[in-house]
What does this fold into?
Amino acid sequence: MVKRPTLQDVAAEAGVSPATASYALRGQRGSDATVERVRQAAERLGYDADPIARALATGSTGTVGVLCGSTRDLWQQRLAVDLSRALMARGRHAVVADADGDPGRERALLAKLREQRPDGLLVAPLDPDAAHWHDVAERFPVVCVGEQLPRAPSAGAVVFDNDAGMALVFDHLAGLGHRRVAVVLTARPSTPDRPAEDLVRRHAARVGVSVVLVHPPPATADVADLRDHLAAALAGPAAGVSVVFCLSDSLAFAALRAAAVRGLAVPDDLSVVGFEDLDVADLVGPGLTTMSWGEETVVDAAVGQLLVSIEDDVAPARSTIAPRLVVRGTTGPAR
Amino acid sequence: MVKRPTLQDVAAEAGVSPATASYALRGQRGSDATVERVRQAAERLGYDADPIARALATGSTGTVGVLCGSTRDLWQQRLAVDLSRALMARGRHAVVADADGDPGRERALLAKLREQRPDGLLVAPLDPDAAHWHDVAERFPVVCVGEQLPRAPSAGAVVFDNDAGMALVFDHLAGLGHRRVAVVLTARPSTPDRPAEDLVRRHAARVGVSVVLVHPPPATADVADLRDHLAAALAGPAAGVSVVFCLSDSLAFAALRAAAVRGLAVPDDLSVVGFEDLDVADLVGPGLTTMSWGEETVVDAAVGQLLVSIEDDVAPARSTIAPRLVVRGTTGPAR
DNA sequence: TTGAAAGCGCTACCAG
DNA sequence: CTGGTAGCGCTTTCAA
It folds into this structure.
């Protein structure tokens, strides 16, 4: 292990003080001649500032914590990756933690992340109602993706316009003549997703469609469980529907398999509609209709809001992403 | 923003010196009485040691860099997530970077990761032959997943026993009477001793099966491109094969779609075989036969080797993961 | 068993 | 425009 050169070394090499070297390398100060001399010295020595020392001196780490509720959900898995990339592109780096569907773990990871002293936090929470979000949001800029943190008014949020999204989907389905739709809600360990349920009911009523609500097992369940659970619903309360509308694409994939288990052809016997538009949907389909939120839009909005908040020391903003109906697959006929 | 308590505060609160407090909190020194008093003080103040300051003082960051070649590959995406989780469980945290299929970016990210002064590096390289791995492996413990770094003898590795894996697959196929197989190669070579191509040829010859090699487009291609590329192959050089054997599951998913494009039923007209056993395969199937490497085995081996290397200051080990043939789907008949 | 003090490498204030 | 120098918060000798 060769000892790395320090700022001292560079300063000595360039024949200036450490202060001058520091300023020069950051382009903050110094005559052109000095700056150039310092740069050359740094170059010659292969110097790179130590981010640890810098962090201690400035009080900012350049790190952003990303906390996901469950990366078993393909959307979150992709989100985590995209957020990391976007942050890296903007000169910060992400520390990603995954609660894996367990609220207790979410809490523990949050504590670990906090100790890490990130400059900010990006979260896709399992339990948005948890009290701990409040404390965290008071200490760090926090931006929540996909929902609001009702207990943490100082947190920013990037939310989807589910109202508009559901309007599009139900209009689409009703327009094709479907009258009976099963809706698979997303799993929330602690809180039933009341608002989503209400939206579904309202839009279904508006277009004269009857709905059967299906609650999935918790996010920790593996894919086979999910498939069997949905297959059971299809044989039970949801028997005879012509559409399964899933509030996430991971659920929609499972619904496709459940249809196969029941011997229903998609989209001829049964249509399956997703609500996220993952690109793997292309591989999983056909016969999967999905709704797109524009992935980059979400990521850009979240990262943008957080960085503005960090850099200008203001509260993070809230923004809403509008939906586009992207019919990738084919929605089958009503029965 | 409330100022966090420091070690000084705890020391003052407990009526001891900072040194004593530091030792006491880490359980390194001190009479039981003192230790207890300091603990209580820390508790009362809600003290948590600042990892930045600690890192500066000790020279170790507790961070492990994870560099993926392309998380568009679902296997790598999952790998990144699992590695983060495993590291977190062992008291370290991961900084994940994704080269997204671009070797230039891989180089740049590696430089960024190095500046970060991680305690070690876990890599799934795009270009294992690149010269920069050599420098890196000399400065940090590095464990490479999925292949070896031929230019970096000091790096550890967790490799798959592809030879044994292919033997299993070809035996399986030949046993079912298949005589003509298309093999979709990955961009990465990935063998301890020999390129995948040679292995394929050798095992095919051994069991008397003829193969058509298909090279996929680069990892940056999107899923639709991949599908079309494979569909073209199925109409061209690979027309008439009864099996498409894909060296990664992501490719296998695309192959399933390509079969659909060509109007071939899976597994009746054409069997599709994967080589990773991702759990989403359950959702994407049916008719997808996959080979399992035991995901936890890989992650545990990689993380285990790296941490031993970091903690005991020895060169990381190399290990080989044995395959299991897990027939999830159904392999169809020969034609 | 405890404490004073010297760093770790960098930034930023304040004089010159 | 430049250079001392005092921290940032913690660990770790070395003495007491």
Notes: Chain A touches chain B through 51 residues (CB under 8 Å). The CA atoms of residues 64 and 119 of chain A lie 6 Å apart. Residues 16-20, 23, 29-31, 34, 53, 55-59 of chain A lie near DNA strand D (CB under 10 Å from a C1'). Residues 63-159+295-323 of chain A form a domain with the Rossmann fold fold (CATH 3.40.50.2300).
